Amino acid sequence: MTADEFVRNNRGINGGEDLPRDFLRALYASIAADEIRISSEAQARARRARPPPAAPPSSKPLGALPRGAGSQAGIRRAAPARAAQRRSAAAVRLRSAW
User: Fold this and answer.
1) Would you kindly state where each structural domain of the chain is located, as residue ranges?
2) Phi and psi dihedrals of 81, rounded to 5?
3) In this model, does residue 63 exceed pLDDT 60?
4) Residues 26-45, buried b or exposed e (16+ Cβ, 10 A)?
5) What does each C-alpha distance from 33 to 36, 64, 86 come to in angstroms?
6) Which of 13, 19, 53, 92 is most solvent-facing, going by the fewest CB within 10 Å?
């Protein structure tokens, strides 16, 4: 990165205003002369502190409706299965009441 790129990248960072160009050039020269580096110990600490990677998303989100269940046609197709589930649950309740 050149000094001009550094100045351009730091536009508007002072409450929406630009910092003085001379200040930014001096800051760039200071950083270029004594580069900021992270020690290998600090890098190892940062790697250990990182959370484990997230599991890849499943093909269906949790609680997803069956394909087409959100449409009117899907609701009509699913109605017989839901009715059968209700009858089955009612039969179980009746049997357990005996």
Assistant:
1) 3-36, 69-98
2) -65, -40
3) no
4) eebeeeeeeeeeeeeeeeee
5) 9, 57, 76
6) 53
pTM attached to this predicted model = 0.40
Cβ within 8 Å of residue 46, ≥6 positions away: 38
Q: Residue 27 to residues 1, 30, 38: CA-CA distances in angstroms?
A: 13, 5, 19
Residue 19 CB-density burial (10 A; 0-12 exposed, 13-18 middle, 19+ buried):
middle
pLDDT of residue 50: 76
The Cα–Cα gap between 3 and 33 comes to 12
